[in-house]
Amino acid sequence: MAEAVGLAASIAGLVQLTGSVFKLVTKFCKEAKDAPSKAQELATQARELAGILENLRLLATSLETRDSDCSLKTHYLDSCQQSLDGIHEKLDKAQIDFEGGKSTRRFSRRLKWPFSLPDTKDLVADLANHRANLHLALSADSMDTLLKSLTKQDEIYNMIERKLSFETRVQLNKRRKEILDFFLRVKPQDYLDVSRDLRHEATGSWLTSGDSTFAAWKNGSNSKLWLSGIAGSGKTVLCGLVIETVLKESDDLTAVCYAFCDYKNPDSCLPENIIAALAVQLGLQCEDAFDLLEEYFDMLHPEDKLPAQPKLDELLDLVLTLADAYDKVFVVVDGLDECGDHISQMTRSLKSLVDRSESVSAAFFSRKEEEIREELEEKFEHIEVLAHTKDLEDYTLAEVSRRKVLQNVERTNPALYKDIIHTLVQGAQGMFRWVSCQIDHICDQPSNNARRKALKELPPTLYGTYDRVLQKIMQCPPETQSCIKRAIQWIDLGHPKMEIPALCEAVSIREGVDDIDEDGIIEPEVISRRCGCLLRKSLDGKYFEFAHFTVLEYLKQSDLTGDFRYIEKDAYQAFAETVARFLLFPCFDRVPTLSETVELAYRDERDRKHPFYRSAAELLTDLTRHRKTNPTRSRILDEEPVVTLLYQLFDVEKNGHLHSWIRTFLSDFSLAESYEFSASPLHMASWFTSPKFCSLLLKQGADVNAVAGQYTPLQMALVAIQIQDLDDDPHSDAFWNSRYTRTLSMLLDHGADTSFRFNGKSCLARVFEHLRGPSLVTFIRPSTAVPEDAIAAFWDRQWNDPPDEQLLQSILEISTKNDAPSQWKAMAAPALIQSRGRGLAFRNNTAKLLSNAYSDVDYPKALEVAIKAGLTEVLSKLTADSRFLGIARESGLTAFTLLSAAAKSSLARGGQIAEILLDSGLEPKIVDSSNQNCLHVSCECGNKDIARVLIARGVDPASTNEKGETPWHIAAANGHSDILKLLFREDGSALHNLATLNMDGRTPLCVALEHGHVEASLSILDFCPSEALYFRSSRSALHDAAMTGSRDLFSAILAKAVVDNEILESESTPMHHLSASCTANFTEYLKTMYDPLALDAAQESPFEKFFQRWIIHNKGEEVDNTIPLEGQMLQLLLPDSFDFMKDGIDIHAWEIICTIIAREEVCC
Questions:
Q1: Residue 729: left if φ>0, alpha if ψ -120 to 50, beta else—which one?
Q2: pLDDT beyond 70 at 102
Q3: pTM greater than 0.85 (yes/no)
Q4: 398-421 burial, b if ≥16 CB within 10 A, otherwise e?
Q5: Which of 676, 827, 833, 894 is least surrounded by Cβ atoms within 10 Å, i.e. has the fewest?
Q6: Using one digit for the tens of pLDDT, what is the confidence trace for 400-446?
Q7: 1142 - beta bridge partners?
Q8: Taking all residues of the chain, what is their mean pLDDT, rounded to a whole number?
Q9: Was domain 156-386 assigned CATH 3.40.50.300?
Q10: Could you write out the DSSP letters of every residue in 784-826?
Q11: What residue ranges do the domains of the chain occupy?
């Protein structure tokens, strides 16, 4: 990543360039005999321009100090630099040719000025114009004014307009901000701002203005671009430029979304967070898109359950759906190579977006890692990112001009200064990062001779540069070395993230001490100065961070860094031990008072003296599963020497340290609540799901059922397990599941009460509702209380986890044995029915379970499960229960629910299930509140076996529901030809029922035609005589048949010879009713009978009707489901002249097309 370049530094580069131009022009004026008088004018203009630029630099330096938020948008400076570059390049080349060539060539060069007279005049005019433009800026009294003087006003306005329109295209109320906060775990705008600040204005123009591959990507559709480059080549800066470039293209129909993966922020390396950030950006640019984002938010936040976390596959589908709201979507993502273990998943996920959506164009930046190359190389256009010499020169000049040491060198030793610039540019090998590191080193040298020597010894690589820094650190005193080593090691731990004062205190804590004061803390400047180009301050100045991604990679190299080698496990263990000792310092052994004012004052004073305390208090969160931790950290906290120190913290007898820590850890809680949890540290141990700490406290006599904050320790553990983030790593899952099981078992072993109620639900009910995985089984023990709401929760549980089988088996074992605990006996029947429903094997004694094991509440549920699962043997036993007769006699909703469940079933044993129910006393003609019987249901679901049984049991095929629909109508509406054939065979009044009208005035045949069911319509036509009463409808049968596009169906209706008796629409023909799916062959068939150019009563042609239906169909479909417009169809439906005569006026077909497109709000 390039280093920051301020406005003053940019102008300083121009000062240097202008001075160089002046010297060269003056030289040629003296030595070139053919130099025109205008050449002297050019020298004068260059000298005066240099003076204005120097004054401008001084002004910008002063204003930058006050105005820290300025952005570099310097159009006139860029234009000035282009002119000076052109002059300098040509003069410099002429001088090099002269000095390096043969004597004859030097002689000829001495005689010739390199510009023509017209060119010289133009150059003089250009410099005069630049001087006038820049002179205005000298009157600026603020950075804002200065920038306005140096920038095209319309460009600033457009930039602000784009930014405002991007952020406020949807109105953000409180709820919508809540949605954004939920999804936006990383903020891409912050990274874009950083990238913009780090970029010199002219950097990257070779890409956005001169690269044909980039231009094709930007202007193309569904285009794919991969930009790769070596470390330090400025990829992140270029990514920001690309984002700004495509932001200029954004409007209501073109969206831009982007993200930056940053190794320093683990959240930004998770695919879920990056895809969510893209989704949020797409949602912000369109109201319809935000509605979709809100729908997904609501899905993750059900009213009756705790919120769920977004899943990667769902987020990908969401982004693709959001992308459909736009004509074009640009996706730009930087740093794929910084994602560590997530590189492959991140790359595949992002690639899938552009692969699955025609509207998405994507550009990805990374190094050329093998995992990324394998995914992108084949289908993505490729651009190699290498810092161009011009970019490096501009950057080097600007960076050098910011260093006072090198400004003095420029003044006192111009030759050395020029040598420094030349050496840095030539040695960079395309790496901005390398240049920055060498400038730091050169500035550290004590004399010009040392700097000259250093130039000859510059390491050619970044790693060589880092070696040099570590060698200097190793020359420091041992105590300083130790502090710096820990600072470098602990910066990358990520969690907890320590501000600079906290880090300095942490690394200064020596072994064997139990106190530290301000005089014993290393100064931040010492760390910053000694670490040189390894570290830098974050942009907000609060943190130290690695100066570049390559620093961390270098520190992980086993053969390069010796004692400074970074091994996360070792670094974290040293950090954890330091934290544990620090929390036990005697100065923190204090029981809080009951005064909030006193406690706030103490906290502020403690944080001033010991800024590390707040970060240290977060250590124990690594005992739990969350996004920033892993099993390795939890294991370290559970092992020596850390665990012994933490035991002391949890020692109830020494509760001053515990009180102080809990009060800080629970800073959002009230003082009274903090006291509650301090009095019962078992709650905190349960929250951290730590079996070791729970064991320690229980042995000390902690009350396993104590209530703090309305929770028992068992409930604390359950809530913690439920909200902890899950992942797809089976090894990680095994570790956490084992930890959860041991913690829960320990609490239950000591008598934790599962019947304790919170917010109206028992603890065990919450277990059956929310808990997943093998830890469930630990609750199946004789001592566990089983409240009634737990049984209800068990029935309603979603049975979709493999460990559920073990749970069911465990419940069956404990509930069906001869000496089964009384409270578990009620669970036997539900467990058995759920086991059978899942097709599980079980022991013989459970197979003999009696139906009377079900409670009155559970009995109907057991019946329904047995019906849906097709368990004929179980259902026979259940229906033998005396309670079934009560259901049968009741003939209410419960009975209908059971019989309709059979009717809706798709199982092969559906007929047997229906027979069992009916033989046991259910009334076959039972109806629901809409007067619908189960024959209606079976005809709707296409269940032929159930329909046959019900007809045989006397259910009348002529029975109607509240809409006047018979089973015939419903089967026809759903296109079930096999049901229709069954009805015709079994219904003694089939012809009468085929002529029956529903409340819409349609016969079954016309219902089938209306719904476009060709096969069902043909089946009914086979049954019906050639009589008009079977064709009765408010619509024409031929018109509906034309909509289907079926020649067989259309000709079959014509063959019935009842056309004269139809109710025809006003002067329209079947040609006016062609649907979007109709083929040219069918249209040609109709053309033999009807005029394709005839107008209906609304003066609309068949073409107009067809084209409108085609537009309506396609605008709501995915690309793969759209129907192409056949040229042959247009030839059949359009006149040769393309003109239609309407009311005596010729209307061109193109005018009709445009009218329809506008009416349907379709964007071409």
A1: beta
A2: no
A3: no
A4: bbbbbbeebeebbeeeeebbeebb
A5: 894
A6: 887 888 888 888 999 999 999 889 888 888 788 888 889 888 988 99
A7: 1145
A8: 84
A9: yes
A10: ----HHHHHHHHH-----THHHHHHHHHHHHHHSTT--HHHHT
A11: 1-151, 156-386, 387-458, 464-566, 763-841, 1066-1164
